[in-house]
Amino acid sequence: MKGKKAPTLNHRIRSEIESRILSGEWEPGFRIPFEHELMEQYGCSRMTVNKVLTALAESGMIERRRRAGSFVARQPPHLEQVALEIPDIEVAVTDRGHEYGFQLLERAHRKARETVVEETQLVGEGKLLAIRCLHLADGRPLALERRLINPEAVPETLKVDFSIHAPGSWLLQNVSWTRGQHRISAVAADADEALLLKVPVGTACLVIDRQTWRGELPITWVRQMFLGDAYDLIARFAPGSR
Description:
With 242 residues, this protein is of the alpha+beta class. It has helices at residues 9-22, 35-42, 46-59, 89-95, 117-123, 167-174, 191-197, and strands at residues 31-32, 62-65, 69-72, 100-111, 127-137, 140-149, 179-188, 204-214, 217-227. Helix 2 (35-42) crosses helix 3 (46-59). The chain is globular.
């Protein structure tokens, strides 16, 4: 069982910049504060700031121009840039006062199977990183997760120890994305799923299938199966909103 880990300063700076970009507060062409301004704001070294800006530039979210500074990238007209909420299960559990736990069940770097649509959509005929894990709250199973990651989009995942880091939490902290898609359904747990979740076969579960992209490059596909009485889906909206 893993305790809650405080986000690093790198993660905090990157998350706050990404949030301003994805929310539209910083529009395409907006100049990001200069390095010395960010150093003063966050009380950190130039190396820390430079590492964050370099990662954002590599992800395509900002453009760095010599002597001029860093600017929010202007995306191609066809690119959707939508800010969707992707919950971090570890944060959600600990914020509610429970102890978070995580178990890695399977990890494999292998070729995509032609008969599995989500695998070929992610990497075509290439290789992917396949992970299966179990999330726990106060030592009890909460959710079963099957995740596929595209190493072409995130090559560093091949070196990450996912027996220590939950893959969803790690991706949220380290990888920029520009588009996401959710599919929500209700299913009954089969024998294998019921055994891992420690519930009777046929127990009602809520399933979320999620895909994320950076531009047109697929990053990850994940299926998370939550026990039906442990997950609330809430959508907030206002008149005239889209």
